[in-house]
Amino acid sequence: MTRDRTVLALLVVVAVLLAAGPFLPRWMISLFNVSMGYGIVVLGMMLLMRTGLVSFGHGLYYCLGAYAAGMIDQIWNVSDMLAMIGGGIVVTAVVSTILGFLLSKYREIFFAMLSLAFSMILYGLLVKSASLGSTDGFNVAAKTLAGMDITGKGLRLTVYSVTVVVMGIAALLLHRYLASHRGRLAGAIRDNELRVEYMGASVRATVHVNYVISAVLAGIGGALMAINIGHIDPEMTYWPQSGEFVFIAILSGTASVFAPLGGALVFETVRSFAYEYSPNTWQMVLGITMLVVMIFLPGGLWSLFTRKKVAA
Amino acid sequence: MTEFVAVLVDGIVYASWLFIIAVGLTLIYGVMKILNIAHGSLYALGAFAAVSCANAWFAQGYAAMGSFAMLAVAAIAVALVFAPIIERGLLRHMYGKDEVVLVLVTYALFLILEDFIKLVWGVDPLFVQGPNYETPYSLLGNFDVAGLTYPNYNLLLVGVAIVAGLALAWALNRTRSGKLLLAVIHDREVSAALGINVGRMYFVTFTIGAFLAALGGALTAPTVSVVTGMGAEVIVMAFAVVVIGGLGSLPGAALGALIVGMVRAAAVHYAPEVELFSVYFVMAAVLIARPKGLFSGAEVRKI
């Protein structure tokens, strides 16, 4: 069974990453941290894409997660890493549940446009709110982990380890969800909504649930990214950021939970090196990569690893 | 009262500017069903090309008034160079794919063109300016309304927007090719079967749309510092306009531009802290109330 192998493989990957942590060079830890943060967001994009939806505004939840993480420190002086991630989860879950009532009625380009509008509303609010640093944003620092002091030399490694574990849990839960009854409805909805309704399942409820899950994943990614980078700004909800998530999801493909995680790593690696060696053409490299993948690998990079063809 | 007049004038000028850009976007969507993110890049290309053309003109020491012609030349050049490459070279192979896939293709194009601009023009801000600091923006003089002074250049924007809108409406509804285009919009396959060269229709449409985007950029260039990333800012605003009006609708683009222009001008004057927020709030509100935009239900025939 494929399912068992995915779970096992996930556990192995998490174990290897955790064990390798102390021996990895600094730059690699940074690269992995950013890739995993992105990877978690793209897990959510993948779920939406499986449902047949492309959001051009998932930066909304990415940004909300990050700001929630940063603001519980500002407001309540809470700087525990788990609490910060929890804050991101709660805020994104609440907001996406509310917006989901509206968005679950929309499809295709209208879904993309309405989610874009919502993310730009947040952008418009944040750039004008002086108390949150306007366009400059503000700095975020996690000081404890479940009560233990983590400041100082080991901080980077701690953040890395927590990120690995969170990513593992997120991927595992999403994988179980995708294999569940409701999870499997996603593909059916993409193919033919009417049939799904005739089978007695609610399309809207499923879209709504999937939307909330994807939003929470984006919030977790955002919170982790805020802790990891230590700084947040409104660019996180500007549309090119949302576009980047769509980009990685297209690059990766949607066939397995490994696809977004691997895709995010490939993306970050390509970007880091392209940015390092030719800062003025990295977007061009990304754009051309995206076109090549869309034309020649409609199932994403992951389809290179699977013999069975799965549509993007 | 003065404030109200200021809002009105600013709103109309801003709406005109938005319309010039958004009408090309809605035209391309109406005909080809492509929501073209690269429209923002064509706008930016128009602005950068305008800087090069106008400054070259000034550097030659020719009459400053000729710089206006240079703005137009820049827009035409951008359309003639990039439209064939983009439409014939790439988009032509993509027709019939899912609308969302087409959006992503143009997003990839957008990324490529952003860096193309950096490679050609560098990353420093540029200005349309002659050796004696002359610029088309100030050449036309000013006009006064209710005690407020505005550059006449703004009137030029309004004029161009009105001419562009009327010309498109006339071309679509009163000319032979326009009517053929309406047939293509209505049913591509049947039109092709009846002998309409659909490929050429698409190509011409895309070129006109690209020209309008570039023209918007070229006309903007003298009023701002031309910087990389200006395309990203404009394209979401143009999205708001066409989504409010109804994708693919010509009067919709005009109405959308007016709404966004007025809302933004009012926000700038009365509540500057909600300036950007207000535009997208209206966009979301319209999408919620009328998911396909204001002009979609009433019109059977789009564009």
Average pLDDT of chain A: 84
Q: Extract low-pLDDT stretches of chain A.
A: none
Q: Which sheet architecture does the biggest sheet of chain A show?
A: 2 strands, antiparallel
What sort of overall outline of chain A do the alpha carbons produce when their principal axes are compared?
Answer: globular
Short description:
The complex is a heterodimer of chains A (312) and B (303). With 312 residues, chain A is an all-alpha fold.
Describe this structure as you would to a colleague:
The complex is a heterodimer of chains A (312) and B (303). By secondary structure, chain A is mainly alpha-helical. Chain A has 12 helices and 4 strands. In chain A, 72% of the residues lie in helices and 3% in strands. In chain A, the strands form 2 sheets. Chain A has a two-stranded antiparallel sheet with strand order 1-4. In chain A, strand 2 and strand 3 form a beta hairpin. With 303 residues, chain B is mostly helical. Helix content of chain B is 71%, strand content 3%. Chain B is built from 12 helices and 2 strands. Chain B has a two-stranded antiparallel sheet. In chain B, helix 6 crosses helix 7 (176-186) and helix 11 runs antiparallel to helix 12. In chain B, 50% of the residues are buried. The A-B interface holds A 54, 56, 102, 105-106, 108-110, 112-114, 116-118, 120-121, 123-125, 127-129, 238-240, 243, 246-247, 250, 280-284, 286-288, 290-291, 294-295 and B 35, 37, 90, 93, 98-101, 103-105, 107-112, 114-116, 118-119, 123, 232, 236, 239-240, 243, 247, 272-281, 283-284, 287-288, 291-292.
